[in-house]
Protein backbone atom coordinates (compact mmCIF):
# COMPACT_ATOMS: atom_id res chain seq x y z
CA UNK A 1 0.00 0.00 0.00
CA UNK A 2 1.09 3.57 -0.46
CA UNK A 3 0.35 7.10 0.59
CA UNK A 4 0.97 10.31 -1.26
CA UNK A 5 1.95 13.83 -0.38
CA UNK A 6 -0.24 16.86 -0.92
CA UNK A 7 0.47 20.53 -0.21
CA UNK A 8 0.00 21.24 3.48
CA UNK A 9 0.66 17.69 4.63
CA UNK A 10 3.78 16.18 6.15
CA UNK A 11 2.81 12.58 5.49
CA UNK A 12 5.00 11.18 2.75
CA UNK A 13 6.03 7.98 1.11
CA UNK A 14 9.56 7.18 0.05
CA UNK A 15 10.95 4.13 -1.63
CA UNK A 16 13.51 2.16 0.30
CA UNK A 17 16.06 1.25 -2.34
CA UNK A 18 15.51 0.52 -6.01
CA UNK A 19 13.05 -1.87 -7.64
CA UNK A 20 14.51 -5.27 -8.33
CA UNK A 21 13.98 -7.40 -11.43
CA UNK A 22 12.12 -10.23 -9.73
CA UNK A 23 8.72 -10.71 -11.35
CA UNK A 24 5.86 -9.74 -9.07
CA UNK A 25 2.11 -9.12 -9.32
CA UNK A 26 1.00 -9.18 -12.96
CA UNK A 27 4.63 -9.60 -14.01
CA UNK A 28 5.71 -6.21 -12.67
CA UNK A 29 8.74 -5.55 -10.53
CA UNK A 30 8.57 -5.88 -6.76
CA UNK A 31 9.62 -3.02 -4.52
CA UNK A 32 9.59 -1.99 -0.86
CA UNK A 33 7.88 1.16 0.33
CA UNK A 34 8.63 2.74 3.68
CA UNK A 35 5.95 5.01 5.13
CA UNK A 36 6.91 7.59 7.66
CA UNK A 37 6.37 11.21 8.63
CA UNK A 38 8.81 13.94 7.71
CA UNK A 39 8.54 17.00 9.92
CA UNK A 40 9.54 19.70 7.48
CA UNK A 41 7.57 22.33 5.53
CA UNK A 42 6.43 21.30 2.06
CA UNK A 43 8.13 24.35 0.56
CA UNK A 44 11.54 23.13 1.71
CA UNK A 45 11.31 19.90 -0.25
CA UNK A 46 13.62 20.19 -3.25
CA UNK A 47 13.97 18.39 -6.59
CA UNK A 48 15.36 15.22 -4.99
CA UNK A 49 12.27 14.81 -2.82
CA UNK A 50 9.93 15.43 -5.76
CA UNK A 51 11.74 12.81 -7.80
CA UNK A 52 11.47 10.27 -4.97
CA UNK A 53 7.77 10.97 -4.66
CA UNK A 54 7.32 10.56 -8.40
CA UNK A 55 9.14 7.23 -8.19
CA UNK A 56 6.63 6.00 -5.61
CA UNK A 57 3.69 7.00 -7.82
CA UNK A 58 5.43 5.45 -10.83
CA UNK A 59 6.05 2.10 -9.14
CA UNK A 60 2.55 1.96 -7.66
CA UNK A 61 0.95 2.53 -11.06
CA UNK A 62 3.19 -0.06 -12.65
CA UNK A 63 1.63 -2.55 -10.23
CA UNK A 64 -1.97 -1.41 -10.73
CA UNK A 65 -1.99 -0.21 -14.35
CA UNK A 66 -2.56 -3.57 -16.01
CA UNK A 67 -5.72 -4.24 -14.03
CA UNK A 68 -6.97 -0.68 -14.45
CA UNK A 69 -6.70 -0.52 -18.26
CA UNK A 70 -8.20 -3.99 -18.75
CA UNK A 71 -11.07 -3.60 -16.28
CA UNK A 72 -13.12 -2.39 -19.28
CA UNK A 73 -12.78 -2.69 -23.04
CA UNK A 74 -11.36 0.70 -24.02
CA UNK A 75 -10.55 -0.17 -27.62
CA UNK A 76 -13.22 2.22 -28.98
CA UNK A 77 -11.28 5.24 -27.67
CA UNK A 78 -8.53 6.45 -30.00
CA UNK A 79 -7.29 9.31 -27.81
CA UNK A 80 -6.96 9.73 -24.06
CA UNK A 81 -5.79 12.44 -21.68
CA UNK A 82 -4.38 11.39 -18.33
CA UNK A 83 -5.01 14.34 -16.00
CA UNK A 84 -2.26 14.44 -13.40
CA UNK A 85 -0.62 11.45 -15.12
CA UNK A 86 2.79 12.04 -13.50
CA UNK A 87 5.44 9.81 -15.15
CA UNK A 88 3.10 8.33 -17.76
CA UNK A 89 3.15 4.80 -16.32
CA UNK A 90 -0.58 4.37 -16.86
CA UNK A 91 -0.36 5.97 -20.30
CA UNK A 92 2.28 3.48 -21.42
CA UNK A 93 0.16 0.58 -20.25
CA UNK A 94 -2.77 1.97 -22.23
CA UNK A 95 -0.90 2.23 -25.53
CA UNK A 96 0.61 -1.22 -25.06
CA UNK A 97 -2.84 -2.70 -24.46
CA UNK A 98 -4.67 -0.68 -27.12
CA UNK A 99 -2.48 -0.29 -30.25
CA UNK A 100 -4.73 2.35 -31.84
CA UNK A 101 -4.77 4.67 -28.84
CA UNK A 102 -2.68 7.81 -28.26
CA UNK A 103 -2.37 9.32 -24.78
CA UNK A 104 -1.58 12.86 -23.65
CA UNK A 105 -0.26 13.15 -20.07
CA UNK A 106 -1.16 16.51 -18.48
CA UNK A 107 0.62 17.50 -15.29
CA UNK A 108 2.31 20.43 -13.60
CA UNK A 109 5.50 21.80 -15.23
CA UNK A 110 7.74 20.66 -12.35
CA UNK A 111 6.41 17.11 -12.76
CA UNK A 112 6.78 17.04 -16.54
CA UNK A 113 10.37 18.31 -16.14
CA UNK A 114 11.28 15.09 -14.31
CA UNK A 115 9.14 12.66 -16.32
CA UNK A 116 11.84 11.77 -18.88
CA UNK A 117 13.86 10.07 -16.11
CA UNK A 118 11.16 7.42 -15.78
CA UNK A 119 10.90 6.38 -19.42
CA UNK A 120 12.41 2.96 -20.25
CA UNK A 121 15.33 2.71 -22.65
CA UNK A 122 14.27 2.29 -26.25
CA UNK A 123 10.71 3.36 -25.51
CA UNK A 124 8.72 4.51 -28.55
CA UNK A 125 7.24 7.77 -27.31
CA UNK A 126 5.32 8.58 -30.49
CA UNK A 127 1.98 7.60 -28.94
CA UNK A 128 2.51 9.14 -25.49
CA UNK A 129 2.98 12.90 -25.20
CA UNK A 130 3.52 15.09 -22.14
CA UNK A 131 1.88 18.50 -21.68
CA UNK A 132 2.56 21.00 -18.90
CA UNK A 133 -0.55 22.46 -17.32
CA UNK A 134 -2.88 22.69 -14.35
CA UNK A 135 -6.08 20.72 -14.89
CA UNK A 136 -7.95 22.93 -12.45
CA UNK A 137 -7.03 26.17 -14.19
CA UNK A 138 -6.04 25.51 -17.80
CA UNK A 139 -8.20 24.34 -20.74
CA UNK A 140 -8.23 20.57 -21.06
CA UNK A 141 -6.76 18.96 -24.18
CA UNK A 142 -9.15 17.24 -26.57
CA UNK A 143 -9.62 13.52 -25.97
CA UNK A 144 -12.17 10.72 -26.27
CA UNK A 145 -11.24 9.36 -22.85
CA UNK A 146 -10.22 11.37 -19.79
CA UNK A 147 -8.36 9.63 -16.98
CA UNK A 148 -8.31 10.60 -13.29
CA UNK A 149 -6.02 8.35 -11.27
CA UNK A 150 -5.97 9.01 -7.49
CA UNK A 151 -7.14 12.58 -7.98
CA UNK A 152 -10.76 12.78 -6.85
CA UNK A 153 -10.39 11.40 -3.33
CA UNK A 154 -8.04 14.19 -2.29
CA UNK A 155 -9.92 17.21 -3.66
CA UNK A 156 -12.18 19.38 -1.49
CA UNK A 157 -15.79 19.55 -2.62
CA UNK A 158 -15.48 22.82 -4.56
CA UNK A 159 -12.43 21.79 -6.59
CA UNK A 160 -13.85 18.31 -7.12
CA UNK A 161 -17.05 19.60 -8.68
CA UNK A 162 -15.15 22.20 -10.69
CA UNK A 163 -12.87 19.54 -12.19
CA UNK A 164 -15.65 17.08 -12.99
CA UNK A 165 -17.67 19.85 -14.63
CA UNK A 166 -14.63 20.78 -16.77
CA UNK A 167 -14.20 17.16 -17.82
CA UNK A 168 -17.91 16.84 -18.55
CA UNK A 169 -17.88 19.96 -20.73
CA UNK A 170 -14.83 18.66 -22.61
CA UNK A 171 -16.56 15.35 -23.39
CA UNK A 172 -18.61 14.65 -26.51
CA UNK A 173 -22.04 13.29 -25.45
CA UNK A 174 -22.48 9.61 -26.20
CA UNK A 175 -18.88 9.18 -27.35
CA UNK A 176 -16.51 10.41 -24.64
CA UNK A 177 -15.97 8.93 -21.19
CA UNK A 178 -13.96 9.28 -18.01
CA UNK A 179 -11.88 6.47 -16.51
CA UNK A 180 -11.27 6.81 -12.77
CA UNK A 181 -8.74 4.84 -10.74
CA UNK A 182 -9.43 5.09 -7.01
CA UNK A 183 -9.94 2.98 -3.94
CA UNK A 184 -13.69 2.31 -4.02
CA UNK A 185 -14.87 1.57 -0.50
CA UNK A 186 -16.97 -1.51 0.09
CA UNK A 187 -20.64 -0.76 0.69
CA UNK A 188 -20.94 -3.04 3.73
CA UNK A 189 -17.51 -3.58 5.25
CA UNK A 190 -14.46 -1.43 5.81
CA UNK A 191 -11.86 -1.73 3.09
CA UNK A 192 -8.42 -2.09 4.75
CA UNK A 193 -7.00 0.22 2.07
CA UNK A 194 -9.20 3.07 3.25
CA UNK A 195 -7.55 3.84 6.63
CA UNK A 196 -4.11 3.84 5.02
CA UNK A 197 -5.21 6.23 2.30
CA UNK A 198 -6.87 8.52 4.82
CA UNK A 199 -3.51 9.20 6.50
CA UNK A 200 -2.42 11.23 3.47
CA UNK A 201 -5.70 13.05 2.88
CA UNK A 202 -6.42 16.63 3.82
CA UNK A 203 -9.72 18.05 2.54
CA UNK A 204 -10.88 15.18 0.38
CA UNK A 205 -13.25 12.28 0.91
CA UNK A 206 -13.18 8.54 0.31
CA UNK A 207 -16.28 7.17 -1.42
CA UNK A 208 -18.20 3.99 -2.01
CA UNK A 209 -19.34 2.87 -5.44
CA UNK A 210 -22.80 4.31 -4.85
CA UNK A 211 -21.32 7.69 -3.90
CA UNK A 212 -19.10 7.79 -6.99
CA UNK A 213 -22.07 6.87 -9.19
CA UNK A 214 -24.21 9.71 -7.79
CA UNK A 215 -21.30 12.15 -8.11
CA UNK A 216 -20.69 11.29 -11.77
CA UNK A 217 -24.38 11.34 -12.68
CA UNK A 218 -24.60 14.81 -11.14
CA UNK A 219 -22.09 15.98 -13.75
CA UNK A 220 -23.80 14.41 -16.74
CA UNK A 221 -22.22 10.96 -16.88
CA UNK A 222 -24.30 7.82 -17.19
CA UNK A 223 -23.63 4.11 -17.73
CA UNK A 224 -21.38 4.22 -14.68
CA UNK A 225 -19.56 0.90 -14.32
CA UNK A 226 -17.41 -0.02 -11.32
CA UNK A 227 -14.86 -2.84 -11.19
CA UNK A 228 -13.09 -4.11 -8.11
CA UNK A 229 -9.69 -5.09 -9.51
CA UNK A 230 -8.25 -6.84 -6.46
CA UNK A 231 -5.25 -4.56 -6.88
CA UNK A 232 -4.20 -1.31 -5.19
CA UNK A 233 -6.77 0.71 -7.15
CA UNK A 234 -10.23 -0.02 -8.50
CA UNK A 235 -11.64 1.23 -11.81
CA UNK A 236 -14.71 3.28 -12.75
CA UNK A 237 -15.85 4.02 -16.31
CA UNK A 238 -18.57 6.60 -16.96
CA UNK A 239 -19.86 7.74 -20.38
CA UNK A 240 -21.01 11.32 -20.97
CA UNK A 241 -24.78 11.44 -21.43
From TrEMBL:
Pathway: Aromatic compound metabolism; melatonin biosynthesis; melatonin from serotonin: step 1/2
EC supergroup of this enzyme: transferase
UniProt xrefs under Pfam families: Methyltransf_2
PROSITE patterns, alphabetized: SAM_OMT_II
Keywords linked to the UniProt accession: Melatonin biosynthesis, Methyltransferase, S-adenosyl-L-methionine, Transferase
Role description: Catalyzes the transfer of a methyl group onto N-acetylserotonin, producing melatonin (N-acetyl-5-methoxytryptamine).
Protein name: Acetylserotonin O-methyltransferase
Organism: Ranitomeya imitator
Amino acid sequence: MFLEIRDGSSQIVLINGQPNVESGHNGYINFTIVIYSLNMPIGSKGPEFKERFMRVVHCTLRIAAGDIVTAFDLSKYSSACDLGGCTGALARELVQTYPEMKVNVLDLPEVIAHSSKFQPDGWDSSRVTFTSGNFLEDPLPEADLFILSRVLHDLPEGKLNHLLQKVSEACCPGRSAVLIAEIVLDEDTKDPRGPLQSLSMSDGKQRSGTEYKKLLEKHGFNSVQIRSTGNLLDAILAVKS
